[in-house]
Amino acid sequence: MNGFDLDLATVSHELFEFNRKLLKSYTTLNQLKEVDVDSTPYDVIYQEDKLKLRYYKTPSEKRCKTPLLICYALVNRPYMIDLEAKRSMLQRLLALGLDIYLIDWGYPDAADRYLDLDDYINEYLNNCVNTVCQHAETDQTNLLGICQGGTFSLCYTALNPHKIKNLIPMVTPVDFQTKDNLLYHLAKYVDADLAVETYGNIPGSMLNDSYNSLMPMRLGVQKNLGMPNQLEDKERALSFLRMEKWIYDSPDQAGEAFREFITQFFQQNKLIKGEAMIGDKQVNLVNITQPILNIFGRFDHLVPPNASKALKKYVASSDYQVMEVKAGHIGVFVSGKSQTHVAPAIVDWLVERD
After folding, report:
1. In sequence order, what are the residues at sequence separation of 6 or more whose Cβ sits closer than 8 angstroms to the Cβ of residue 147?
2. N-terminal to C-terminal alpha carbon distance within the chain
3. Model-wide pTM > 0.85
4. Which of 128, 133, 147, 155 is catalytic?
5. Annotation says 147 is catalytic
6. Which of 56, 89, 192, 208 stands 20 to 30 A from 18 (CA)?
7. Angle between helix 234-248 and 223-230 (nearest 10)
8. Using one digit for the tens of pLDDT, what is the confidence trace for 3-50?
9. Could you tell me which residues are beta bridge partners of residue 277?
10. Are 352 and 66 in contact (CB under 8 A)?
């Protein structure tokens, strides 16, 4: 026998099982009426244009006087940290005694084409920080930034160091041109001017296709072939569909902000050069002296560890810690490790510095 011979009985059995699971998946999907996400109750305490600032009150005894503001990326919806009760980093942080404020950027439309990084960081983010401090009756807030939101948080802290007490970047790109940064190798060929002139706002669906193209076998062929296994029973199907809903719930990107982010950060790597401009303000990371807890995923293919770990070289923080999570980009937030290790570590770290 050579390597191409097939056991017909095995093939027949596998095809039968695959078709059985497909039929079961069809039955399961027909029974599902709604894919619920983002279910933790909150109050909207501030609105500006599409932005809403959410407030989540801890159900436990509050352990930190200083509030925690979470700044998410523009490219996906923030309910990734609140997909479902058993995989909600948000609920875990609340249960451990933190009051949480979360920025919901909303969905940009054609009227937002000319929003730039100055609008997002020096206006929207700054107004949220001010509102959080006023609402919590404090002079400063802790700031946790996720992915692109982490980059925004670094820029904001460097420009307004007196307003931020402790800083937690999570899966945050800092050096955008590491050799293993797949997004950089894609972004360096993007004609941002042409893209914005063509589309106005950059379609979220197009960005999703770009992310999927970085790992076509795992995110395409393997996932689709394995889908019947995920949809056999109701609970597994809901978990799978919640994640799929988040992945494809991608807001369009305001044209000018997209143009600036691609050119300044990916193509010119200005953040680590001290040359990034947010409006008329120059970002210098050495202005950051706050305690930093830098969290990244060992197997992150979108923001590789080296892109995040570079931060230590450019800030002036004497209290600097890293936390490497044995997970990918999303697993840092939704895996079992997120519930048992990441959230408790964040709370303990903040309490020690409150």
Report:
1. 72, 73, 75, 170, 171, 172, 173, 302, 303, 329
2. 69
3. yes
4. 147
5. yes
6. 208
7. 140
8. 556 677 777 766 766 666 666 666 766 677 778 888 899 999 999 999
9. 282
10. no
